[in-house]
Fold:
Amino acid sequence: MTGTILGCIADDFTGATDIAGLLARSGMRVSLRIGVPDQPPSDTSPFEVIALKSRTAPVAEAIAETRAALTWLKNAGAARFFWKYCSTFDSTPDGNIGPVAEALMRDLGTDQTIYCPAFPENGRSIFMGNLFVGQQPLAESPMKDHPLTPMRDSNLMRLLAPQVTKPVGLTNRLTVAKGVDAVQASLAQHRSDGTAHVVVDAVANADLETVAAACRDMPLMTGGSAVAMPLPALYLADGLLSADAPKQAVHDIDQKTIVLSGSCSAMTNAQVASYIATGAPACQLDPLTLTQTGPQAVLDWLAKQDLTEAPLIYATADPASVKAAQAKLGVAEVGALIEQTLAACAVAARDAGARRIIVAGGETSGAVTTALKVAQLDIATEIAPGVPWTYCVSDGAQIALALKSGNFGSETFFMDAQAKLERA
Ligand SMILES: Nc1ncnc2c1ncn2[C@@H]1O[C@H](COP(=O)(O)OP(=O)(O)OP(=O)(O)O)[C@@H](O)[C@H]1O
Ligand SMILES: O=C(O)[C@@H](O)C(=O)CO
Structure:
């Protein structure tokens, strides 16, 4: 029986399902824990992911939580670790990515790690240390206007340097193109120069295969989810993982479904419009009305729905409406109001028999999983790159839960999700 081989720590919930989903492409069992478990490890998987909510937390808090996660994962048997942050490197000059990496390096007694947020299947690529979102440099992409972590520079070395105490360097695409030995030689050169933090270019999945192969024995790798994807096959080839290691389970889940959308990204707006156009029952939450009437009206609407028709409850709105609501009610207040309402809808839907719950938005996913009191998710079939179905238990009921990052999935995501579970 194989113990835990790789321990991953993610700085948000949808980021955690993202890396868990890509690791699960291997067919191996991947478990995701919501927060650092109170209990010592038991029923562990070859790949364990701990989801934190530390992306915008104060540095000291993020470090403390991440170190606690590391200890739990070490106790689960892991000897290799992955620090997962956003593929758009979401952070601020006094943000957490660098300080957390340095804290993990200290705890693991290692003097070097890599930074590779590339996710080519979702349009994130790195060339000469510059991060692109589709064809746009990061700082010209919609990420420049992110409400919490506006990204105003596209150069990963410049973004990382103010966050760390040790030198930052680059292993560029020309080296990656030469293969595994060239990447390892470049890392060794950086190490002898005292460069602890190495940004590594990747523009395609083939580059990520090379980078993962070159770095697979590092105690700590950091990046987006995609550079972790080749690791299961590499560990299998190295004999670290046996072919009889636990595989993904498949459960037969009742068809009653609820779709909850609190993301206001351009992609989620398109997904909501496309779902409504199919004729699915839908109820829009208006923040101003909610402050006056509370959640009862939407709960009443939900109680009348046939859950086999997979109704949608959404607060998703265009940027102008979001700004107007924020100006009237306050950014944090309106966010919390909607998150709490959608979380209450998730609980009510579960109590009414919904066993398939689809959620759009990272913060929204956090609120929903917390309200459902979900502690552990087992990763199941992939819906879209970085968005898997997961299985969990909530109040004794076996639930299939899909947590979608705001920007991920195609326009037909909500339909795709339902169809994928049928095929699984
Ligand atoms: N109509 C609205 N007006 C104002 N705020 C809203 C509205 N609808 C949703 N919100 C809030 O916007 C925030 C959206 O964040 P969330 O993390 O859920 O989505 P996202 O940022 O698109 O996803 P991700 O973090 O995965 O990229 C939530 O706090 C939500 O409550
Ligand atoms: O890496 C990404 O883009 C996502 O997994 C994410 O972190 C969403 O918040």
Observations:
- Residues 14, 262-265, 268, 287, 315, 317, 321-322, 325-326, 334-335, 338-339, 361-364, 405-407 surround adenosine-5'-triphosphate (ligand 1) (CB under 6 Å).
